[in-house]
Input
Amino acid sequence: MTANDSKCKVLMIYTGGTIGMLPKEEGNPISPLVPAKWERFKDFVPSLRDIPLDIDLHEMTPIDSSDMHPDYWIDIARVIRDNYEDFDGFVILHGTDTMTYTATALSFLLENLDRPVIMTGSQSPISQPRSDAVQNMVTSLILAAGKSFNLPLIPEVCICFNNVILRGNRARKVSSSSYSGFTSPNYPPLGEAGKYIKIDTKVIQKPSTKGFFINENLEKGVMLFDVFPGISPKILDSLFSIDGLKGIVFRTYGAGNAPTNKDFLKEIEKATCERNLMIVNITQCNQGMVEMGLYDASATLLRLGVISGMDMTPEAALVKMMFLFGLGYDIKIVKEQMQKNLRGEQSIDLFNQERKNF
Ligand code: ASP
Output
């Protein structure tokens, strides 16, 4: 890639993950990997010195992203807010395990974004000779500084991994080892990074023209649950009585189908009507969308007040609920907002959906 004269400034935020891990017992390559300070890796990234950009590093507490939590997401959002005016773009180095959750959370926490926030990491530590880290990191820096390389601006929270650039709140980790570890099954890639970087401007969000700010509240009383054959009403009863629970992302079969027996449906009714819980229906399938009412096996759920999560990823449905309850809305508004496309996380608003002829 050739750079022009507009030398962009990029802030690289390091949060840990495999990219910055070393064996716990130094010198013992088979001891478990633990996150290390970024300083330990400076020598492994020679190409950074050759990139014609102004790159600053902000180091957060390095963690295995399995330890990621909503308070840490808010801390990342605060780092971006505090540096927003000084940088043209941001790169977040992050573990791959929960990268899609963090990308989704940031897409909701960062309000009125007009510049790139690119998340990346690697499947092998940067200190290993065959690591995918340098390529992922350098491509992400180039995307964050698109202007310097005559690339279109991507004013979104994205995941850049191997050769794809994905909308963060549409992405899923699909492999624990492949260098092509992420896809976005219900939305086209925003771009491709081979020898040349190609951005598909038709599928990118427009930059906001309003003032940037961040949201700093997320509701933690939410959960994800998979329906399975033979699920007992007792399990549902104890699940729905968890103290402080406000909403559940219910992963059902196919187009949103669930058991139709009366005991199962009674528990759902108790949850939505008596306990005033919000239940959002998404599919266990890797691809496709919930269409409640298409089968009888989902029509009753709809009648009982279960909300359609359309084609959202589990991460998007869960984090969107955390975000909406975090704004302090009451459940009626949360239900309404939940079915609207707020950050490109679902393909259509339920309210605009045409009635199917089935
Ligand atoms: N456990 C690691 C993490 O998510 C895995 C990775 O980064 O690939 O932090």
